[in-house]
Write a structure and sequence with these properties.
Elements lengths: L1 H19 L1 H11 L9 E3 L3 E7 L9 E10 L5 E7 L6 E5 L5 E2 L8 E5 L2 E6 L2 E9 L9 E13 L3 E13 L12 H8 L3 E2 L5 E4 L10 E6 L3 H6 E8 L12 E5 L2 E7 L10 E11 L7 E14 L11 H15 L6 H13 L5 H31 L13 H18 L14 H4 L5 H14 L7 H8 L4 H24 L1 H4 L7 H9 L1 H19 L2 H22 L5 H28 L5 H8 L8 E2 L2 H9 L4 E6 L4 H11 L2 H10 L2 E6 L5 H9 L7 E5 L8 E3 L5 H13 L1
C-alpha cells in the first residue's frame, strides 16, 4: 500500500501538475521557441536560458570535440538527471549533424537531490552543462562550416512542472589538419570538472534478501575510506543510474566500520538481483582545510557486482589479521584430513630417502615443496578473483562442481596409485605426478608434490577454515590472495618444519626395504580416492559416466604398462613405446572430454532423492520455499549443506547424522531435517552459504522452534552427542 501511495504521489507531481501548466507550456513553446523566430545558439524560457557551446572555436577533419547545452535555471527551479528519482523526466537532446558525424549519449554531471514531502528527485539547479562528444567526419572540407542542431527537451519544476522544448544551432568553421582549432567556451572545462571520475576505492555492494512480505531489502555499499578521509566527509549519497533500484526518499544511513564506511539504503520497486552490476554515482561532499564554510563536492563512478549480504553477526568482528590466523591454523589441520594425509605420507617417505643428503639440501626440498603449495593456492585465488569479477557465485571447492575436473583428478589419483604400486616410473622429463616425483634427487618432485597436495586438499574443509574463507571471498582481491596464501602456508608448514628442524628428523626411521612396502601400501588410498571420485562423477553426469571413467583408467593402465615395459629396450622400441603411451593418454583425454560433455543422462540418484523418500530416509531436499514455509509455521529445522565430493561432509553424515540416537532426537523434537546438495552448481545454496559467511560446505544450521531469527551454527566436524546437544540446548532456551 505504501508503494502504491508513493507511486500515486509520483504521478501526481510529474503528470497532474504538468496538466495544470499545459496552457502555460503551450504559450511558452510558441513565444520562446527558436522556431518562432530563427535558429541560433541561444534560446530562453521564463525559467531556463539555454545555449549551445563548444570546446573549440573551429574543427579539424576527424577530430573529436565536446558540444554542451548550458542551462541557466532561475532560483528554486530545477531540471532533471538521467534518473530523475521519484518524479520528473530526464533532459533529452536530439542531434542533427552533417553526414558522417556522430554524437555520443549525454555525459551527465553529478546531480543533487531535491525533496518535497515524500518525493525525492535527482536534478540540477542554477547552472549546468550537459556534454555530448561529437566526432567530426574525416572528409570534412576546410573552409566550410560544421553546423550542429540540437532539439532539447526538458522538464523544469518548482512546485509545478513545465515541459519545454528549444532548438539550438551552432556553426563552427572547418580548418585544415594541423591548423589551430582555437579556444572554446570555458564552461566546457567547468562541465568536464563536474563529471564523475573513476572511484579510487574498490567499492563492494551487498544486498539482503528481499522480504516477500514487504518486497524490500537493504543495499549496502562498503567504501574503504581512510580515517583522514572519513574525518573530512560531510555528506555522502548514492545516485543509481536506473530508477527503482533504491527508495529515493529514504535516508541513506552512514555507519563507520573497520576500514571505511558503510552506506545502507532501502531497496526500491525494481531491486537488483544478486550478481547484477550496481551502477551509479557516489557523491561525496567534504570539508576542505580549516575553513568551515568551504566545501568540495566530488562524484565517483560506482560499478560493483552485487553480492548477498551475510546475516552472520560475527562478520564485522572477524578482522583481516584474525582471518589470516584462522586460515593458517585451518591449513595445518588440513594435513590430517583424509584427502591430504596420504600425499603428506608420501612426502615424508621421500624425506627418509633424502636422509643421506646435507641439511641445506633437505631444507631446500621443504622450501620448494612450500613454494609448490603457495603457487597453487595463489593460482586458485586468482581464478576466484576473476570469476568474482565476472559476477559468478563461487566458493571453496567450486572446481569439483565440474564433472570434467572430477574425472581429471580421478585419473590423476589412479595414475599416482599405479606409480606407487611400481607399474611404471615417470622419468625426469615428465616428472611431477605421484611418488615418483618425490624420489627424484632434483627439486621438481618437491614442487609438484606441493601442487598435488593442494589439488587433493580442496574437497576438504578443516575447522577454522570456513570463517576465514567466508571472510576472504567478501574482501578485495589483495586480502583474498593474502588469506589463501596463509591457508597454503598452513598446509605446507608441517613438512617445512620437518625439513628445517634437525631434531624432528631424528625421529624418522632409517631407510630400508620397509619404505618400498610402505610406498606400495600408500597406493591403495590413491585407488580409493579414484573410486570415490568416480562415484562423485556419477552423481553429476549420470550412470553412463562410469563407462567413460573406467574405460579411461583401463587405457591409462595400458599406457603405463606399455611405457614401463619398453623403458629398458632398444632406443627404437623405447621411443615407440613412449609415443604409443602418449597417444593412448591423449586418446583417453579426448574420449573422456567428448563423452562427459555429450552425456545427457539424468542424475538418477539425485532425482530419486528429490522426489522419493524411503522408509530409512529422515530428511527432505532443501528448497528456499520449503525452509520459509517451516519457519513461518514456527517449526524447528535442521539444515545440512553437503556435496558428494566433500569428504568431511560424507564422514559427518555417516558418523553423526545417520546415528540412531540423532534420528530419534529429531523425531522426538519434531525437527524437520533439510539437506541441500551442492555437488553441482546451485545458486540458491551458494547464496545461503554466503548469508553465514561461508564459502563452501559443510554447513550445519539449526533453527529452534519459533526462533527463525536465532539460527545456531554447528562446527564442521560433528559427533552424535554434539548434534543432540546443539538441538536440545537451542530448543530449551
Amino acid at each position: 500500500m505504501i508503494n502504491l501511495l508513493q507511486r500515486g504521489k509520483r504521478y501526481l507531481t510529474a503528470n497532474v501538475l504538468c496538466v495544470r501548466a499545459l496552457w502555460l507550456s503551450a504559450l511558452v513553446t510558441f513565444l520562446f521557441s527558436p522556431n518562432a523566430l530563427s535558429i541560433s545558439d541561444r534560446a530562453a524560457t521564463p525559467q531556463v536560458e539555454a545555449q549551445l557551446i563548444a570546446s573549440v572555436a573551429g574543427v579539424q577533419p576527424g577530430m573529436e570535440i565536446y558540444l554542451g547545452v548550458n542551462q541557466k535555471i532561475i532560483p528554486h527551479w530545477h531540471t532533471y538527471w538521467t534518473n530523475p528519482g521519484d518524479s520528473g523526466n530526464a533532459t533529452t537532446i536530439e542531434w542533427t549533424l552533417p553526414e558522417g558525424a556522430t554524437a555520443s549519449d549525454i555525459i551527465w554531471p553529478a546531480p543533487s537531490r531535491f525533496s518535497m514531502g515524500p518525493i525525492t528527485n535527482y536534478a540540477y539547479e542554477n547552472d549546468v552543462t550537459l556534454l555530448t562528444k561529437i566526432k567530426i567526419p574525416a572528409d570534412a572540407q576546410p573552409s566550410e562550416q560544421f553546423t550542429a542542431q540540437a532539439l532539447v527537451d526538458w522538464l523544469v519544476c518548482e512546485e509545478e512542472c513545465i515541459p519545454q522544448t528549444v532548438e539550438l544551432a551552432l556553426s563552427l568553421p572547418i580548418v585544415a589538419v594541423g591548423e589551430s582549432a582555437g579556444v572554446g567556451d570555458p564552461r566546457i572545462d567547468d562541465a568536464l570538472a563536474r563529471l564523475p571520475v573513476a572511484s579510487p576505492w574498490e567499492i563492494r555492494a551487498t544486498q539482503t534478501e528481499i522480504d516477500p512480505a514487504t518486497a524490500q531489502g537493504e543495499l549496502t555499499l562498503h567504501i574503504p575510506l581512510s580515517e583522514a578521509q572519513l574525518a573530512q566527509v560531510k555528506d555522502i549519497w548514492f545516485y543509481p543510474y536506473d530508477w527503482g533500484r533504491i527508495q529515493q526518499s529514504s535516508e541513506q544511513l552512514r555507519k563507520p566500520v573497520d576500514g571505511g564506511i558503510e552506506l545502507r539504503i532501502k531497496t526500491g520497486e525494481a531491486p537488483l538481483k544478486i550478481g547484477d552490476a550496481v551502477t551509479g554515482v557516489l557523491v561525496i561532499t567534504e570539508q576542505s582545510g580549516e575553513v568551515t564554510t568551504q566545501k568540495i563536492t566530488r562524484g565517483f563512478e560506482v560499478d560493483s557486482v552485487l553480492q548477498l549480504a551475510s546475516n552472520n553477526t560475527s562478520d564485522t568482528a572477524l578482522g583481516f589479521f584474525t582471518a589470516l590466523f584462522l586460515a593458517l591454523i585451518g591449513g595445518i589441520i588440513l594435513n590430517l584430513m583424509p584427502c591430504v594425509f596420504p600425499v603428506l605420507s608420501i612426502k615424508a617417505l621421500s624425506l627418509v630417502s633424502h636422509s643421506n643428503q646435507g641439511a641445506a639440501q633437505i631444507r631446500a626440498h621443504g622450501v620448494v615443496y612450500t613454494l609448490g603449495v603457495l603457487a597453487s593456492f595463489a593460482l586458485l585465488a586468482l581464478l576466484l578473483i576473476v570469476l568474482k569479477a565476472g559476477g559468478a557465485q563461487i566458493g571453496w571447492g567450486f572446481q569439483f562442481q565440474s564433472p570434467l575436473f572430477v574425472l581429471a583428478v580421478a585419473y590423476l589419483m589412479f595414475a599416482v596409485g599405479l606409480s606407487l604400486s611400481g607399474v611404471f616410473y615417470v622419468g625426469g622429463s615428465v616428472a611431477g605426478v605421484g611418488s615418483s616425483l618425490t624420489e627424484k634427487p632434483g627439486y621438481s618432485g618437491s614442487f609438484f608434490t606441493g601442487v598435488l597436495a593442494t589439488i587433493v586438499a580442496t574437497p576438504c574443509t578443516a575447522p577454522f577454515m570456513a570463517a576465514a574463507l567466508g571472510y576472504a571471498l567478501a574482501q578485495p582481491a589483495a586480502k583474498l590472495l593474502a588469506i589463501f596464501l596463509s591457508l597454503g602456508l598452513g598446509l605446507a608448514l608441517p613438512y617445512l618444519l620437518l625439513t628445517c628442524w634437525p631434531r624432528l628428523q631424528r625421529w624418522l626411521p632409517r631407510p630400508g626395504m620397509w619404505m618400498e612396502r610402505a610406498k606400495q601400501v600408500l597406493a591403495f588410498p590413491m585407488y580409493a580416492a579414484a573410486i570415490w571420485l568416480v562415484w562423485v562423477l556419477v552423481q553429476q553426469a549420470g550412470v553412463n559416466s562410469i563407462v567413460i571413467a573406467l574405460g579411461g583408467m583401463l587405457l591409462i593402465a595400458f599406457a603405463a604398462w606399455l611405457y614401463n615395459t619398453t623403458l629398458l629396450s632398444s632406443t627404437r622400441a623405447r621411443n615407440a613405446g613412449t609415443v604409443f603411451a602418449l597417444a593412448l593418454l591423449l586418446l583417453t583425454l579426448g574420449i573422456s572430454y567428448a563423452g562427459i560433455n555429450s552425456s545427457t543422462a539424468s542424475v538418477v540418484n539425485a532425482t530419486k532423492k528429490g522426489s522419493e523418500k524411503s522408509a530409512e530416509q529422515n530428511w527432505e531436499p532443501y528448497s528456499e520455499a520449503r525452509l520459509n514455509e517451516l519457519l513461518r509455521e514456527g517449526k524447528p529445522v535442521f539444515l545440512n549443506f553437503t556435496a558428494s565430493w566433500c569428504i568431511s561432509c560424507l564422514v559427518n553424515e555417516r558418523v553423526a547424522l545417520s546415528d540412531a540416537r540423532v534420528k530419534e532426537t529429531f523425531m522426538q523434537e519434531g525437527i524437520t531435517y533439510l539437506k541441500g546438495d551442492w555437488t553441482n552448481r546451485d545458486l540458491a545454496i551458494t547464496q545461503f552459504l554466503q548469508k553465514f559467511n561461508r564459502s563452501g560446505v559443510p554447513l550445519y544450521v539449526f533453527y529452534p522452534a519459533g526462533k527463525s531469527d536465532q539460527p545456531a551454527e554447528l562446527p564442521q566436524i560433528l559427533t552424535p552427542d554434539m548434534v543432540i546437544s546443539a538441538v536440545t540446548d537451542s530448543s530449551s532456551h
